[in-house]
Amino acid sequence: MSGNETRAVRKLRARLDEARQLHALTDDPLLRAVRMERFRASVTRSLWFFLALGLGFTTTGVHEFLAGQLDPSHPMWWGAWLVEPGLAGILITLLRWEAEMLARGLDPEARPVRQLKRLLLGATLITNVWASLRPVTGGINAGMVFLHLVIPLVVFLIAEAMPVIQHRCATTRPEPVPTVPTPRPALKLPAHLHEALASKAAQVRGEGRPVTPADVQAAVNVPDAYAVKLAAQLNQ
């Protein structure tokens, strides 16, 4: 660094060094994977929230279809409120299963699962549209027909999009780098002790068993801790 640099140059040079360090850290693949995982979790929470809102709206349409002409004193009027939450619970369970399979790198695509999802959402769509076309009181409201048609479709598309989002985010995770074990340095012995130890090791292997610290100490006079290390080295 030149001694003629001004204070402004030194400050800019320090900022440049800091920027290089930050770039090296932010460009790390593991950090990018963590950020993507947090983004995936944020998007998933948002989708679950809006999916719950949509299912809450469709619950009213299903209830209107099943019990629109009944009085609240009728048991079926109350039981009808449980139909759509029950169907939605099955759908949510399927979505959770798909998300877990994708998080573990497994393909959840299966024809029965796909058919069950479409059946659940198709039943919701039909009951909502029918209830809006045949209102119990008043005439047909075009806005309500539109909402009861569009919102079940949006719920269906959210259910189809969530596994795709999970899969795309899972593919951005870096593959784990295999850790190469560091070889332990070989313990050095004088030549005559090495020969005695090698002879004892050959004898023990001939008996079909691993070398023990006691075998090592029977061949050479070494401390217990050193005998353990020598036995481990001979058994590698």
Q: Would you write up a description of this structure?
A:
- This protein has helices spanning 7-26, 29-67, 75-79, 83-103, 111-133, 142-170, 191-206, 213-219, 224-234.
- The protein folds into two domains: 8-170, no CATH class; 191-234.
- The longest helix has 39 residues, at 29-67.
- The protein is mostly helical.
C-alpha-based Rg, rounded = 35 Å
Structural class: mainly alpha
The coarse silhouette is elongated
> Please, what is the average pLDDT?
81
- What is the count of DSSP helices, taking H or I runs of 4+ residues? 9
* Low-pLDDT segments: none
The SSE order reads HHHHHHHHH
Strand content: under 5%
β-strand number: 0
Largest sheet: none
**What helical percentage do the residues reach?**
over 70%
Question: Termini separation (Å)?
Answer: 53 Å
Estimate nothing, just give the exact number of structural domains. 2
How do the helices and strands line up, and which of them pair or pack?
Layout: H1 7-26, H2 29-67, H3 75-79, H4 83-103, H5 111-133, H6 142-170, H7 191-206, H8 213-219, H9 224-234
Helix pairs in contact: 2-4, 2-5, 2-6, 4-5, 4-6, 5-6, 7-8, 8-9
